[in-house]
Design goal:
This protein has 27 helices and 30 strands. The relative contact order is 0.17. Helices cover 31% and strands 19% of the residues. Helix 4 packs parallel to helix 20, helix 9 packs antiparallel against helix 11 and helix 11 packs across helix 12. It starts with a strand and ends with a strand.
């Protein structure tokens, strides 16, 4: 037996950590994974590794993972050939559209779509042929407000300024837990060491969260905030900056700041304090400390995205960075200059060009908010969704009111899933098409390099050979496109493998053949640990894509939404508000079938402040009934001083006990789906993004 060492990036979360993977080879040449470790020579992750990366071998060897197409026959699954599968998918989807119109077929793309470059380059090669307006994705249960704010302010939804964490003196985090997420819209491996370096150079870390999270626990200051109160806090901060003359100038061309100042004038720290639960004096002092720092950055993430004021929150975050002179400034918030630049390669997009049929929710970038998906299936009439294509997604566990969606899926005429597993969603499919595993295909990270705290690049070849009879995800989309185009008698443009596309993008990009870097795939092959292309620099002024080439500080739709905030009602006395949480061993709903990630201390419980438990005569470990407008779940409760009184927390991604799921390890895990409690009617009306945090619930003994 001999051993070989390979280098690879982990793309199971946003940290894109470099890995050293050792393979052992038997006498027959079969390769097995011997070890997975962090790559100390990776210039970005610097040897950092989290449990998810080690679990790559569990995904590779998982007996529950599908390895060939499967067709539903009654309650059973039957393996079929790729040719049969492509023909069946094309025939059934074509028939639904012929009978009911193009929009009768809907598409849902899950979070893993942006973690795999074959899905990024080729999914639309097939999905675009469907020409349906009913397209949905995990974006609208996550970061949609951030994209929309960048679209409105900077002219492109991917011009996303990220914290220059390695050079800032003051970092204010709202609704984010980078120690568990490794960043999130801020690609930052080894984040704990970066926070330690921030404090070692005399900087300060402040975290605002209804739970004293892992990140809050190491912060200099943690402030409890009422769920949904972040917009009020941000208004109080911005008002204080204006009122006390703490604003600075900016080198950027900006329009609309006077309109913002006038609109925010009534929203003083004193007026906003009751809405957020933070004393007015604390709001004012935080604004002064932020403005006094030489280099400061405000960063809002999942907790502020997935609430009823999500878009307003992210607009206010950008404004605080702008008016203090910290937008497009080293040590503040900067945009990346990646080797493959999706901003330069794509248009700025569009917003509200059409609306969902039932609730009139706005589209963004060609997608509708997924909170509307179930009602589009359940509501009769012209345009009713009667077929669904899911791509690497599990919306039954990941979108609001999952039980309603689960019931809606059961009534579809046809469902196609491109997925590795028979999970809570794909159990309803008529046809499942699995791709190769992560270690069996090449990878280039175009998405998370766009969000990295340094400009970096890396291309990784497959570690393991493609199994006989298997197809990469991009090959699946090509096969589907060819079959559908033939059935619909549509012309189909030729395409190239994703590696060819990335090579062309590298050669024509800012570090391409006319630069000292001379980047290409061949060049990156000679740098298996990746390349550091340098720190983030000022560039937003030159990259603005608004019609006036200025930062639009006062989009009208957001100025108007301030009035909704002013009318916000306080929670009723004794009301509990539900928030989610994330663990470093989990990544959404797709990492619970691997023993090394679910072993150890249980993490599924409802966390609740001991005072709230005592008031309801509850004890640690007791089963409780948690109820909302949409449903009821039963789960164990755990007292936790880290919870703000009046707030309870249930993690996302659990609840695997549904009939027909073929995930043995996951099904043995206790816990309930938080999205059986979240409400599809509770959403940010500006973007349509789901409000998964701040959900009113009742808790009582089961």
């Amino acid at each position: 037996m001999n051993k070989t060492l390979h280098h690879r990036a982990c793309h199971l979360c946003e940290a894109i950590c470099g890995l050293s993977i050792e393979l052992s080879h038997g006498a027959d040449g079969t390769a097995q994974i011997s070890s997975i470790k962090g790559d100390p020579l990776d210039p970005f992750s610097r040897g950092h590794i989290c449990p998810k990366a080690v679990a790559l071998q569990d995904i590779q060897n998982d007996p529950d993972r599908l390895r060939q197409p499967h067709r539903r026959v009654g309650e059973q699954w039957q393996a079929i050939s790729w040719e049969e599968a492509f023909a069946l998918a094309a025939e059934r989807l074509w028939a639904v559209q012929q009978a009911h119109g193009r929009n009768a077929v809907a598409v849902y793309q899950g979070n893993p779509s942006v973690h795999n470059y074959g899905l990024m380059t080729h999914s639309n090669y097939f999905l675009g042929l469907l020409k349906t307006r009913n397209r949905f994705s995990a974006t609208s249960v996550d970061q949609l407000p951030q994209h929309l704010v960048s679209h409105l302010m900077y002219g492109h939804g991917l011009l996303l300024p990220v914290p220059d964490i390695d050079h800032t003196d003051f970092m204010l985090i709202l609704g984010g837990n980078p120690l568990a997420s490794n960043g999130s819209i801020m690609t930052v491996p080894d984040v704990e060491k970066r926070f330690k370096a921030l404090r070692a150079r005399g900087g300060r870390l402040v975290v605002v969260d209804p739970r004293r999270s892992e990140t809050a626990a190491i912060a200099d200051t943690h402030l409890f905030i009422r769920p949904g109160g972040d917009a009020a806090l941000l208004c109080g901060l911005l008002n204080t900056l204006f009122e006390e003359g703490l604003a600075r100038g900016t080198h950027l061309p900006v329009s609309g700041v006077p309109a913002v100042q006038a609109a925010i004038a009534p929203m003083t720290a004193e007026a906003m304090s009751p809405l957020c639960g933070i004393p007015a004096a604390g709001i004012r002092q935080l604004a002064r400390d932020f403005a006094a720092a030489d280099k400061a950055v405000c960063y809002g993430r999942m907790g502020v995205s997935t609430q009823v004021f999500g878009t307003l929150c992210h607009w206010l975050v950008q404004l605080i960075n702008l008016v203090t002179g910290n937008l497009d400034r080293p040590g503040g918030a900067l945009c990346t200059e990646p080797a493959v630049d999706l901003v330069a390669a794509t248009s700025g997009g569009h917003f509200n060009a059409w609306q969902s049929r039932v609730s009139g929710l706005p589209e963004y970038g060609g997608e509708l908010p997924v909170a509307a998906l179930a009602e589009e299936m359940l509501t009769p009439g012209e345009g009713q969704v009667r077929a669904l294509v899911t791509v690497a997604g599990n919306p039954v566990l990941s979108t609001p009111n999952g039980r309603q969606l689960d019931g809606a899926l059961a009534g579809l005429e046809f469902m196609l899933s491109i997925d590795l597993y028979i999970n809570e969603t794909t159990r309803h499919a008529d046809l499942i098409l699995p791709s190769t595993s992560a270690l069996e295909n090449d990878h280039y990270d175009s998405t998370f390099n766009l969000l990295a705290v340094r400009n970096v690049t890396r291309f990784n070849r497959a570690i393991l050979p493609k199994p006989e009879g298997a197809l990469h995800d991009w090959e699946i989309f090509v096969g589907l496109a060819q079959a559908f185009a033939a059935r619909a008698q549509q012309p189909l443009k030729p395409t190239a493998p994703p590696a060819h596309m990335i090579d062309l993008a590298l050669r024509s990009g800012r570090y391409g053949h006319d630069t000292p870097w001379k980047l290409s795939l061949e060049a990156l092959d000679s740098h298996p640990h990746g390349l550091d292309l340098g720190p983030l620099q000022r560039n937003l002024g030159a990259r603005l894509a608004t019609a006036e080439n200025t930062v639009q500080a006062a989009p009208q739709v957001l100025l108007q939404d301030l009035q909704r905030l002013a009318l916000q009602a306080l929670p009723a006395p004794g009301q509990l508000l539900l928030i989610g949480r994330r663990h470093v061993r989990s990544n959404n709903s797709w990492m619970h079938n691997y023993h090394r990630l679910v072993k150890g201390k249980p993490r599924h419980q409802l966390l609740m402040h001991p005072d709230d438990m005592q008031h309801r005569c509850l004890q640690d470990g007791q089963r409780v009934r948690v109820s909302s407008r949409t449903g009821t779940v039963e789960v164990e409760v755990q007292g936790c001083q880290n919870m703000m009184p009046g707030v309870v927390s249930l993690p996302h991604g659990y609840g695997h006990g549904l009939k027909g799921v073929h995930m043995q390890v996951a099904q043995r895990q206790p816990g309930a789906s938080a999205n059986d409690l979240t409400d599809e009617r509770l959403r940010d009306p500006v973007s349509g993004n789901a409000a998964l945090n701040g959900v009113p619930v009742q808790v009582e003994a089961a």
